[in-house]
Amino acid sequence: MDTEKKYNIKSPDLCISIFLFAAVKRLMREARELKDATGEYWACPLEDNLFEWHFTVRGPPDTDFSGGVYHGRILLPTEYPMKPPNIILLTPNGRFETNKKICLSISDHHPETWQPSWSIRTALLALIAFMPTPGTGTIGSLDYTPEERKTLARK
């Protein structure tokens, strides 16, 4: 009898392993690319969990958020980059609710718009770009006054 282990290429376990391997490989590459902070953002995975990242973004210049530094988390699915991340802001900012998954075209609220070519860097830049836009009717959005947002940015 042949003692060599056989793998069924149609096995769900094998598919999960392939997706997980691809995700880990991609995330390790992104971690290397993002190891140095920029003037706009910083991001890094947790030491013990490559699928949870912490980040900071600076408020966009010439907006109510200018001067603010905002801390958040990115939770990535094991199927990343084929499926989008969850994005959670932890710092009060007047645009997005804190400690809740926010609804953006680059988040898991809109998997139909996610592109596998996008990355954590893309998500951070999109988050910065979305900050000064109106949040009418979207999940996790807030509509504070400009004065309230400027006060939060200074804090």
TrEMBL record:
SMART domains cross-referenced by the UniProt entry: UBCc (SM00212)
Coiled-coil ranges per UniProt: none
A Pfam family matched in the record: UQ_con
Start and end residues of each UBC core domain: 22-155
PANTHER family documented for this protein: UBIQUITIN-CONJUGATING ENZYME E2 (PTHR24067)
Protein name according to UniProt: UBC core domain-containing protein
